[in-house]
Amino acid sequence: MITAEVVGSTAAIGYGLAAIGPGVGVGLIFAAYIQSTARQPEAARITQPFMWIGFAVVEVLALLGIAFGFIWAGNPIG
Fold first, then answer.
1. pLDDT digits (tens, 9 = 90+) for 41-66
2. What whole-number distance in Å separates Cα of residue 38 and Cα of residue 1?
3. CA 37 → CA 27, 49, 55, distances in Å?
4. Contacts of residue 34, Cβ cutoff 8 Å, sequence gap at least 6
5. What percent of the chain has pLDDT over 90?
6. CB–CB of 48/33 below 8 Å?
7. Is 41 exposed, middle or buried (0-12, 13-18, 19+ CB in 10 A)?
C-alpha cells in the first residue's frame, strides 16, 4: 500500500524552508538598527556599516542555500 508519492525535486521545498531563516535574520538586523538609532541618534553613523555587513552576510547565506540546493539535487544551474 503506497500512502504518498513525491514526484520531482524536493530542492525547491528545502530552499523554501531555508529561506525563512534569512528572512527573519534580515528583519532582526534592521529592527536592531532602528532601535539603536532611536535610542542614540548620534551613533547612527557608527552602527550603519555594521548593519550593512550583517545584511550582506545573511543574504550570502541565503544564496548559498539555493546554490547547494541545486548542487545536491544534481540539476545543472542555468
1. 999 999 999 999 999 999 998 888 77
2. 61
3. 15, 13, 17
4. none
5. 47
6. yes
7. exposed
